[in-house]
Amino acid sequence: MAGIIEGPLSKWTNVVKGWQYRWFVLDDNAGLFSYYTSKEKMTRGVRRGCIRLKGAIVGIDDEDDTTFTVTVDMKVFHLQAKDAEEREKWIRGLEDTILRHAQLQRRLDPNHPTPTMQDFDKKLTETDSYLQILIDQVKALELRITQGNDDQEKMRLCSIRDRANEMLESIKHTIVLLQIAKNTTHPVNGVQVAAPISFFQSSPSESLKITNNQQPKINLTNEVVSVIASMEDVPVQTGIELGAECVELRGVNIECTDSVRQSPANSLEQPGFYSQRPLALEIPETSYSSSDDEDFFDASENMGQSPTLPTPSTKTLDELESSQRNQSSVSIDYDALYEDSDEDDLGSMESHGSVVTHLLSQVKLGMDLTKVVLPTFILERRSLLEMYADFFAHPDIFVGIADFTEPRDRIVQVVRWFLSAFHAGRRSEVAKKPYNPIIGETFRCWWDVNKEKPATESIVTDGPVPWCDVNQLTFVAEQVSHHPPVSAFYAEHYGKRISFCAHIWTKSKFLGLSIGVHHIGQGCVSLLDYDEEYIITFPNAYGRSILTVPWVELGGSVSITCAKTGYSASVEFLTKPFYGGKKNRVTAEILQPDRKPFVAISGEWNGAMIAKWADGKTEEFVNVNAMPIVQKRVRPVAEQEEFESRRLWREVTLGLKFNDIDLATKSKSSLEHRQREEARIRKEANEKWETKLFSLVGDNWIYDKPLVKRLAASGAQH
């Protein structure tokens, strides 16, 4: 792309004014994306704001196909096209301009050697040699086809030959086009060889005339600005024009006529004001908006400054705890901090504008966020390992799977438990992120499934929680890997002879206006009395509206399969459409062994779900709001081992609870610093990390002492 694109877009102004119509002009040469309150204001040159595209990042929302963002100079501009097709044109133009100016910057960098015309000729010669080799191979293939007797083999060889001939034609055309490009960018004796008119979207008369007292007047298309074309050993111009802010005239007189411009379709119209403007456009030092058109990222007066980030503390947690206690004579009840499930509202992220925009300026679309350090204030007061325990917030539904005698009823109960397993993991409407577990971290808890049933003296001493009895559901989790971050967890009910083993690799990506967390892995429900295993996958999670009030939704396809019975289920977590629609929608079908569905389920995974059976009967399948959450029981922090989650993160939790962000950040940094140091020591000693409770078997992390293995060893297996 070269030239100018212009047209209307809606721009987000602020919460009060919302989206407002603006006329945008993308100047590819100058690397500017300017906007005006109207097309008429554009013709008069009354610019409302300007976005410098050098170093900019274009972001998109994976669910909304009309909005996109441009992040640059510590600012985020939110824009909306009329439809997906028009957004795609703008994004393509913006990314082309950003890439061109990034390449130009590299070319002007003296530390990077610039390719010369000799390099170009060498590569072209190499390409021609490879072409000849390919031609010889095709000839050999033809000979083999002629001499062959097997018709099937001949057909296969003919197919290969046809593909090879197509490749040959493509390479030939490429070499011809490269030669034309060479002649265009490096004219022989200063005279440009004419290129086919189809190469350009304008008539030959629309050109940039360059005059010089020592050189004849040369007409050049706007595809290439060859001000220094007659210099010896000129670097190859890879289709990139010098922007107005980069051109050094050196005595060359430039006479402007109507430049070659792209002819956009639909609402991207031909330029008006820019046809008469001088070539050298004023380049602002930074992107800006009019003072009376404040954008919603301008929440902090220190927006232009990078936030001061605390350096990692070398204090141990015990030293931090001692320091805290020296400041107060009141003992700290860490257990109460964790049992208090009320999370403080983040409010709008605008109040943290400088930190958030600084963070966003360092990430790119599709970038893996695993190694990105997030601000402490967005953390939830618990570890990710503890959050996984919320899959069993309704333990009676889970252990009830084993009570059904028919395989059809068991798959229905598995789906019922699965659909009710996600709502308890979200403590509030506002999205917060649990602590990233450190390698070797563990978490244990248990549930009293039937409170009316007294605890027995039958303690399962070899179970995941060795002080629990046969009528309690027990849970243990371990962070088994740091890169990639993999968590493994296991739950069992000894009395019901049911267990669940799973591992999840969380892979986070920046999606522009959202953050996507892909849950890679699977879980397995084991019913020992029936020798059945139900393999389950997990939905993805998305953090939406990360620049305002963030919220979480689930999305993606999930499968539940039982190889022994042949029953299966498919579940779809539906993300909210940009316009209209509801949040947290889910649909599911449970299939018979012949793959015919016998029940369809729909509703909200954090509310009521309705089942419609094949016989026409409709009933409530499960309603998570009508069922109380059974609180998990956790050993007091004072009795926990050093690497158990609540003990490990206690000071971070204390700081977040009482809004002491400095304490929380120092404690978090101390843990991360210790983890890095231990990893460094292991690497220097060439030692491999040894897990405590789980082992990698094939692609799955399996609990070392599952119920089925222990029962088999004791001879008690059914």
UniProtKB/TrEMBL annotation:
One of its GO terms (cellular component) is Golgi apparatus. Keywords: Lipid transport, Lipid-binding, Transport. CDD domains: PH_ORP9 (cd13290). GO terms for biological process: lipid transport. Residues 287-332 are annotated as: Disordered. The keyword Transmembrane does not apply. InterPro entries: OSBP_sf, Oxysterol-bd, Oxysterol-bd_CS, PH-like_dom_sf, PH_domain. One of its GO terms (molecular function) is sterol binding. Residues 306-315 have a biased composition (Low complexity). Belongs to the OSBP family. This is Oxysterol-binding protein.
